[in-house]
Structures are given as structure tokens and as C-alpha cells.
Amino acid sequence: MQLTLPRPAPAQPRQAQDDGFSITQYTRRQIAAIWAAAALPMAFLAWVFAPWLADHLDGPNQLPKALLLSLSAGLVWQFVLVAGLVAREQRTLRWSRVRRALWLQAPTSPRSGRRGGRAWLIVLPLVVLFGLEELVPQIGHAVNRDLGPFLQSDAGHAFLSGAWGWFAVIAVLGVFNTVLGEELLFRGLLLPRMNRAFGKRDWLANGILFAAYHLHVPWAIPGALLDTFIVAGPSKRYRSALVGIAVHSAQTFMFLGLAFSLVIA
Q1: In whole angstroms, what is the distance from residue 99 CA to residue 21 CA?
Q2: Cα–Cα distance, 124 to 197 (Å, whole number)
Q3: Would the pTM of this model clear 0.90, i.e. be above it?
Q4: Over the chain, what HEC string results?
Q5: Which residues make beta-bridge pairs with 115?
Q6: Angle at 92 between CA 89 and CA 94, to 5 degrees
Q7: Interval 150-178: pLDDT, tens
Q8: Share of the chain above pLDDT 90, in %
Q9: Residue 141 backbone dihedrals phi, psi, to 5 degrees
Q10: Residue 70 forms beta bridges with which residues?
């Protein structure tokens, strides 16, 4: 399937931020193309490539190993995708421009207009709400396809005991999942560029797209829909992708803590 990715040009609509910095606005077709460029490779890696790779790995737990490697590669691809699109849009990867282009800035209070400071406090209740997503019933699925339940199983304990190499793979997956991959793409790249296509409901469309992106782990889609209100909405309200990154990264810290305890056990 051939995907047409955005080719930012001076004639494209741009939306100015409070500091005068402008961001190219995407059409709905461009947004769908970027969504597909992230979601379809992840689905392919999870449901086609990982089972094939598992058949070529030695030892126990072939499928979890294959999924860790495959999905890590898919998340790294998302980072490359974001970097490439921002470089074409801004004509540079200078941090001073990338930071503003991807909303990698402290949250701005919607009341006072001040950036940082007390505005960061919004992250605390959002992390709690994000943790409560674990109570949302999931679609039935195999344990060895879900990292959390797998690591809590006897097989997961045996797999990670003393396995520093696999712990490093999990760390890479976690960092590219919630910092350099999913959140950077959905809240850093897409969300600031969806206003012209969806208006005031851009954050709602962003959250729905994010949930639908989880074709590689469809049982997580019901919980991911809640991220519309816990992650996408606040990221838009405070004009900061760092809000979404901070909230979503609570999951990464939990997994890394669990994995580390098993490695040293």
C-alpha cells in the first residue's frame, strides 16, 4: 500500500502560536496517511512478522521475544517518521525550532497564560486517572502477547531473571513508546496540526485516532479511548506534548520497575 505523506510548502495553511511561531496545518487526508504510516507497520509487525520471527528463535518464550524486538523496531520507526516530517516542515532539526514545532515545552496555564510552574501540577491527577485505566475490562487475549501479564507470570519471571540484554530491549521499547514514539507522533506532531481539519474537536479526533492506532494490541483500545480525555485533551488545553509524555510515561516507569525487579531476582 502506497502512502502519501505531507509535503509542507509555504503555501500551506499555518496556525500561529502565542509567541508568533507558526505550525503547518494538515488536511484530513494527510492526517490519515500519517496515522496509517504508524498503525499499519505496528499491526504487521505484531500479527505477521513477530510470529514468523518467533519460529526462527531458539529456546522458550519465542513469541514474547519476537514481539519485544518487532514492536521496538516499529516504535523507533515512528520516531524516524516524526523527525523526517518535522525536518521537511521546518527545514531544520535545530532544537529551538523542533521544541516549538512539536510542543515540547512546559504546559501553559489556560487561565493565566503563564508557562511552567504550577501548571505542571495538572500531571499529578492525570497520572492517577491514567493508572485507573487498568480497571477497564479488556478483550480476551493470549498472555504471551501482553507484556504486563506475561512479566507477572512464572514464565515471565524465568525469562527475565538475570537477562540484562532483554531488560535493555524493554527499556528501549518503553522510551520509544511513551517519549520518542507514540506520544511524540500523536501529541507532538499530529495534535498541533489538526486544528484546521477538525476545529475545536481536534483533541477528540486525536484521541480517537490514537485508540484506533492500537491494532497491534486491540484489547487495549477501550482503555486507550479514555486517553482522549486523560492525555489528548489536557495536552491541547495546556499546549504541551510534555503533559501527554509525562502522563503516559508513568506506564513505562511501572514496566521498567517490574522488569528490573525480575532481572535482579
Answers
A1: 11
A2: 31
A3: no
A4: CCCCCCCCCCCCCEEECCCCCEEECCCHHHHHHHHHHHHHHHHHHHHHHHHHHHCCCCCCCHHHHHHHHHHHHHHHHHHHHHHHHHHHHHCCCCHHHHHHHCCCCCCECCCCCCECHHHHHHHHHHHHHHHHHHHCCCCCCCHHHCHHHHHHCHHHHHHHCCCHHHHHHHHHHHHHHHCCCHHHHHHHHHHHHCHHHHHHHHHHHHHHHHHHHHHHCHHHHHHHHHHHHHHHHHHHHCCCHHHHHHHHHHHHHHHHHHHHHHHCC
A5: 108
A6: 125
A7: 877 888 788 888 889 888 998 999 899 88
A8: 50
A9: -160, 165
A10: none
Please enumerate in sequence order all residues whose Cβ is within 8 A of that of 90, keeping only pairs 6 or more positions apart, or say none.
97, 98, 101
List the grid coordinates of 67: 514481539
Is the pLDDT higher at 211 or at 138? Answer: 211
d(CA 220, CA 136): 9
Which region among 8-17, 39-48, 231-240, 247-256 has the lowest average model confidence (pLDDT)? 8-17
CA-to-CA separations, 81 to 34, 97, 185, 186, in angstroms, rounded:
9, 17, 8, 12
Q: What whole-number distance in Å separates Cα of residue 251 and Cα of residue 253?
A: 5
Q: Is 140 left (phi over 0), alpha (psi -120 to 50) or beta?
A: beta
Task: Decide: 137 and 39 in contact? Cβ < 8 Å.
Answer: no
Residues contacting 175, CB < 8 A, separation 6+: 252
Packing angle of the helix pair 123-132, 241-263 (nearest 10 deg):
60
139: left (phi over 0), alpha (psi -120 to 50) or beta: beta
Beta bridge partners of 24: 14
Give the tens place of pLDDT for each residue, 58-72: 878 888 889 999 999
